[in-house]
């Protein structure tokens, strides 16, 4: 029998609850009869089932990012963003757990279509929704690319990301989305496909446009330099360097960027 840590056992149990023991057994390459005790421990544990699953999803979103978590759990980005907004510090309220603990395993498979609320709909203690006045409406801020990058730098280096988000007065879900886009997409293939793809798929992403605009502004002031290709790659790296890790810059982006701006 393979030994797993408590955290890994919990992950296997949650997978078995959602996907079934057979599929989980194949995914983790362990015997099916080893999966069932993990599931039983989860069911009989002190925490409610939904609370355990919710915390697993939120932890994944914090560590792996929104896109990866949505793919792993089969969730829509809208559902995950609602969940993060409802629990910015990953702390549940008693009312919420009491309400959601009534959901059975079969219903959990379709929970991504359910709108997440911080309190149960039948909870009389829940405050009534008030019509917002002009003063209550949340101010919408359009952040520049420089402001987004600087905010993400502060966010990723903070020991308590929820607290950092509050200090920045920017929702944590926005900061996580910007972080993932900068780390995993900017100046890489998704960036190229969105801005320069032959098949236009929807609206061009503003962050990608702004990033290329930054690089092009630098180029106009430095186009007489030697080794301009290398200089452009370095400039792109410097723009999206948000921590100690080295940003990945795709050669496909460089060629597409030069072609678009007619750089020889």
Count of distinct strands: 0
Structural class, by secondary structure, is mainly alpha
Shape: elongated
Q: What distance separates the N and C termini?
A: 62 Å
Q: Which blocks of ≥5 consecutive residues have pLDDT under 50?
A: 91-127, 132-138
In what range is the share of β-strand residues? Answer: under 5%
Helical stretch count? 15
Average pLDDT confidence is: 76
Largest sheet: none
Helix content: 55-70%
Give an account of the 3D structure.
This protein is an all-alpha fold. The protein has two domains: 6-113, no CATH class; 141-264, no CATH class. 61% of the residues lie in helices and 0% in strands. It has helices at 6-19, 21-28, 32-43, 49-64, 66-73, 77-86, 94-100, 105-108, 145-157, 161-168, 172-184, 189-196, 206-222, 228-240, 251-260. Helix 1 (6-19) crosses helix 3 (32-43). The protein is elongated.
């Amino acid at each position: 029998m393979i030994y797993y840590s408590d955290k890994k056992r919990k992950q296997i149990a949650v997978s078995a609850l959602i996907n079934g023991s057979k599929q989980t057994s194949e995914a983790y390459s362990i015997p099916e009869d080893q999966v069932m005790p993990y599931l039983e421990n989860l069911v009989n544990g002190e925490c409610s089932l939904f609370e355990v699953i919710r915390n697993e999803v939120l932890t994944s979103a914090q560590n792996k990012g929104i896109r990866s978590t949505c793919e792993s759990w089969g969730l829509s980005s809208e559902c995950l963003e609602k969940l993060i907004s409802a629990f910015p510090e990953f702390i549940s309220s008693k009312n919420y757990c009491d309400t959601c603990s009534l959901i059975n395993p079969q219903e959990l498979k379709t929970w991504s279509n359910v709108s997440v609320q911080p309190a149960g709909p039948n909870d009389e203690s829940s405050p009534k929704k008030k019509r917002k006045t002009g003063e209550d409406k949340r101010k919408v801020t359009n952040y520049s690319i420089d402001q987004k990058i600087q905010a993400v730098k502060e966010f990723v280096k903070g020991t308590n990301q929820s607290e950092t988000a509050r200090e920045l007065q920017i929702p944590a879900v926005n900061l996580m989305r910007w972080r993932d886009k900068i780390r995993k997409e900017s100046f890489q293939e998704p960036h190229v496909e969105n801005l320069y793809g032959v098949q236009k798929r929807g609206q061009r992403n503003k962050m990608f446009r702004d990033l290329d605009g930054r690089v092009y502004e630098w180029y106009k002031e430095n186009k007489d330099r030697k080794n301009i290709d290398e200089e452009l790659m370095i400039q792109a790296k410097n723009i999206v360097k948000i921590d100690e890790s080295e940003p990945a810059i795709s050669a496909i982006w460089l060629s597409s960027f030069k072609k678009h701006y007619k750089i020889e």
